[in-house]
Amino acid sequence: DQQVKQNSPSLSVQEGRISILNCDYTNSMFDYFLWYKKYPAEGPTFLISISSIKDKNEDGRFTVFLNKSAKHLSLHIVPSQPGDSAVYFCAAVSASKIIFGSGTRLSIRP
Amino acid sequence: IAGITQAPTSQILAAGRRMTLRCTQDMRHNAMYWYRQDLGLGLRLIHYSNTAGTTGKGEVPDGYSVSRANTDDFPLTLASAVPSQTSVYFCASSVDPGAGNNEQFFGPGTRLTVL
Fold it and tell me: Which of A102, A104, A105 has the most B C-beta neighbours within 10 Å, making it the best mutation to test the interface with B?
């Protein structure tokens, strides 16, 4: 049973608009949630994280929202740029163990 | 060396052969990890090491072994490769598995094909 789920395998967004990537989890004991970005033929790179005691964290164009009651988090990218086209992995940390979602491929179209 | 490196970049291997994937980091991170990435399944943890001299099993350890003789190196060995081990393998490291968000730094990956 997947503890971290990204139900949308792909998403297409027009350049300049907002991209919203979603992630659901089942374990209420997770301490942190992270987003990683992955380009083809490269390893994932850390993008942004949020502690379970917060509901929002912002870093430039990237904002992560956490809804603990719904066990849901989302990554907002605004405005979306062509370089944002990549696979985004949601991840959750509990007792120093990290679990990744299956990823969402974001495509930014002109 | 800068960051975390993996070798080889890609490999085609006959089933039944032994193969070692190499991983080296120069960041003096305590923890290291091996993941495999398969379509629709994301990144799954194979083995990990919280500090030199210790290792542990992840979500999908069967058919793989690791060692951590020193801080920098964390090789992954397939003793007798099978086609289901065809995947992209990522090595990663983090400063301390118990510290904060346990941000991990990833290598560029090894694409392994077992025929």
Answer: A102
